Amino acid sequence: MKLYSTNGSLIHSSSFPDGFTAKKKGGSEDFKTTIRDPTIQSLTANVTFTDIKKSDAISNVIMTHLQLKKLPGSAATSD
């Protein structure tokens, strides 16, 4: 998962270090991170599934725009 600011700058990148096993009948995986910069209000997230070596894409790029909200007493989060 790569997170980009509104100006297109990459601000965070994360992955499953050891990969994960895909379920044969479908399912879901959670991608979560914490954004500690309170000035960031929106992001673009790009998610691409790759092989275990992270060298070949095995899915299309899934892109979504996120509007962040600050929870009382915590860093900003996204749903």
Strand arrangement in the largest pleated sheet: 2-1-3-4
Question: Outline, from the CA principal axes?
Answer: globular
* C-alpha end-to-end distance: 15 Å
Major β-sheet profile: 4 strands, antiparallel
From the alpha-carbon coordinates, what is the Rg to the nearest angstrom? 14 Å
Low-confidence stretches at least 5 residues in length (pLDDT < 50)? Answer: none
Helix segment count? Answer: 0
- What series of H and E elements makes up the topology? EEEEEE
Share of helical residues: under 10%
> Would you count the extended β strands for me?
6
Structure explained in plain terms:
With 79 residues, the protein is mostly beta strands. The protein has a domain at 1-14 and 37-71. 0% of the residues lie in helices and 29% in strands. It contains no helices and 6 strands. The chain has strands spanning 2-4, 10-13, 42-47, 62-67, 69-70, 76-77. It has a 4-stranded antiparallel beta sheet with strand order 2-1-3-4, with no helix packed on it. A two-stranded antiparallel sheet has the order 5-6. The protein is globular, with a radius of gyration of 14 Å. The two termini are 15 Å apart. 3% of the residues are buried.
How would you concisely characterize the structure shown here?
This protein is mostly beta strands. Helix content is 0%, strand content 29%.
